[in-house]
Amino acid sequence: MIDKKHIGMELPTVVWPVERGRLLAFANAIGEQRPEYIDEAAARAAGYRGLLAPPTLWLAPQFDADTVMLMLAALDVPIERLLHGEQSFTYSAPVCAGDVLTLKAKVADIVDKKGGAMELITHRTTVTNQRGETVGEMSSVLVVRN
User: Fold this and answer.
1) Contact indicator for 16, 64 with CB cutoff of 8 Å
2) Coil, strand or helix: which one is 72?
3) Is residue 34 one of the residues assigned to a domain?
4) Considering its fold, how many domains does the chain have in total?
5) pLDDT > 90? residue 123
């Protein structure tokens, strides 16, 4: 069983520059074809500061920095017992090429289910830009099979 003392545990802060090439590669990988995501001039014509970041891009910085793996290690959860249960995003402002994101994540909750046969870890992240503006939040629920 995961020790509930970990609720509230903060993960390492991730600072992540939003690079144009990364945005284009991500848009291509997810099949995004809207002009503001793949054409700088179209993005600017639509009123953005630069090429627009596809919405779920915020997952990339955490994968790059291995923060989820660090969290699992701290909670003593073997990856082979893990399932991804849920993911949600709340958007407050656009993210564009040239921005620098800061991601602050924490363990928001740990809940036992089915008499301890599984545990749910809720992981929440606040994302701000270089101007200190909150651009959004994301939340994920990880299922640990016991």
Assistant:
1) yes
2) helix
3) no
4) 1
5) yes
**What one-character DSSP code corresponds to residue 10?**
B
Is pLDDT of 58 > 90? no
Is pLDDT of 139 > 90? Answer: yes
What is this structure's pTM? 0.91
Q: Which domain holds residue 10?
A: 4-18+54-145
- Which CATH number does the domain housing residue 117 bear? 3.10.129.10
Output phi, psi for 73, to 5 deg: -65, -45
What single-letter DSSP state applies at residue 11?
Answer: P
Q: Identify the helix (H) or strand (E) that includes residue 111.
A: strand 100-113
Residue 6 in tokens: 């970990």
Q: Which residues of 100-129 are buried (b: 16+ CB within 10 A; e: fewer)?
A: ebbbebbbbebeeeeeeebbbbbbebbbbb
Question: What's the rounded Cα separation, in Å, for the pair 52 and 90?
Answer: 16
Kindly report, residue by residue over 88-106, the tens digit of the pLDDT: 999 999 999 999 999 999 9
